[in-house]
Specification:
387 residues, Diaminopimelate Epimerase, Chain A, domain 1, 6-stranded mixed β-sheet, 14 helices, 13 strands, DHH_sf, Dimethylmenaquinone methyltransferase
Length: 387
């Protein structure tokens, strides 16, 4: 069964996707930074799942159920009940925000507290394939671990179990801000390392992104499990990152281990088809690359002859253009920007983007607006009428 996970773009959101990924093969993970971006994402998922013939599983973690998300749940349930029973999808929602309960009540959904689990509330829905759990006393990472029977296709044991339990305890203490717990300091260290690395090497949406970040979180959790102090974790993180990058690049024939980690990753990303979308004018567009990494990657792309102009779109909506034919500034000007002929920047009209596909849909029509068909002009019609 194809599995998609929608989760928050923070430590708890990545902790939840790391836990789910340990027990189940997830085909696609979408990290959503702002609750305002949830609406377009779930609308796209509903349309996609409505057309999908085979049953799929959608897991939502740590997203804070605003009105659009609650509406999605009810629409998903209605859509699913109209499908043949054997083709029905599964929806699992695990959240811990008190505001989610308010939104669910406002839209008239029935909430049922679970007596044996204080703090846990289940939403009563007519489709057993839809499970919505809200627990104010547990972070999403812990919810994903404690309710893994809802989705797990395999077991884990031994050191892996201990590693995951350490991750759960650290994230739970940090996310709920339980400073009195012994695991809180480890959570702080984990959070610092997460934010230092989540966007610097491999951009969100690239096939290596979640593999790398989850491996990093698990590696740090293993150190914490051994009793490592935050200072020791910080001291060892460079070597840890290098080991993880060695594993990622093991099959890359052009990798050069004598370079720095960022240099090696930039060379690999510059050759990656998954990183870019080619626009109609030949410009290569990437999404979410760290600005320093984009400088390296774009230079390698143009040096290798893959494109003469490259543009990177950030989640915040900023655009960076690079070129080797003095067209970067031309592109930036179409987005209220400026700069140098071969290095310029601008801003998306919508103000933000949440994925590579979303960035392409906003950049393409502005950078390469459709040209009117001369045959459809009023003058052409008059000329044809006159013969």
């Amino acid at each position: 069964m194809t599995v998609t996970q929608l989760t928050h773009h923070d430590l708890d959101g990545y902790g939840a996707s790391t836990i789910v990924g340990a027990f189940l093969d997830v085909s696609r993970i979408v990290h959503i930074p702002r609750y305002a971006d949830v609406g377009p994402v779930v609308d796209a998922e509903l349309k996609r799942l409505s057309r999908a013939q085979a049953p799929e599983c959608l897991i939502m973690t740590d997203l804070g159920l605003e009105a659009v998300a609650v509406t999605f749940i009810t629409r998903f349930t209605s859509m699913n009940l109209r499908r043949d029973e054997a083709a029905r999808h599964r929806l699992i929602v695990l959240d811990h925000h008190a505001s989610s309960l308010d939104q669910l009540r406002e839209q008239g959904l029935t909430l049922a507290p679970v007596p044996e689990r204080p703090g846990l509330t289940r939403v009563e829905l007519p489709d057993p394939n839809v499970v919505v759990l809200i627990d104010e006393d547990r972070c999403a990472t812990r919810l994903a671990y404690e309710h893994r029977e809802l989705y797990a296709s395999r077991d884990v044991e031994g050191e892996t179990t201990e590693e995951l339990e350490t991750l759960v305890a650290a994230v739970d203490a940090l996310d709920l801000w339980k400073k009195e717990r012994l695991t809180f300091r480890g959570g702080l260290a984990l959070d610092e390392i997460f934010w230092d690395n989540v966007a610097t090497l491999i951009p969100v949406g690239h096939p290596w992104h979640d593999r790398f970040i989850s491996a990093l979180l698990r590696a740090v959790s293993a150190l914490l499990r051994e009793g490592a102090s935050p200072a020791r974790v910080e001291a060892e993180i460079a070597a840890t990152r290098r080991r993880l990058v060695d594993a990622l690049l093991a099959d890359e024939p052009q990798d050069d281990p004598t370079l720095t980690t960022r240099m090696r990753m930039a060379r690999a990303l510059a050759r990656s088809d998954a990183l870019f979308q080619r626009l109609s004018d030949g410009t290569l567009l990437s999404f979410g690359l760290d600005s320093g990494m984009f400088q390296r990657v774009s230079d390698l792309v143009m040096e290798g002859g893959r494109a003469t102009r490259v543009v990177n779109v950030q989640r915040t909506g900023s655009l960076s253009f690079r070129s080797n034919n003095e067209t970067a500034l031309d592109g930036a000007r179409k987005f209220r920007g400026g700069g140098h002929k071969d290095a310029a920047g601008g801003k998306l009209n919508a103000g933000s983007a949440f994925s590579l596909a979303d960035a392409v849909s906003q950049v393409e029509p502005v950078l390469n607006p459709p040209q009117p068909d001369p045959a459809s002009s009023p003058f052409a019609a008059l000329k044809a009428w006159k013969g």
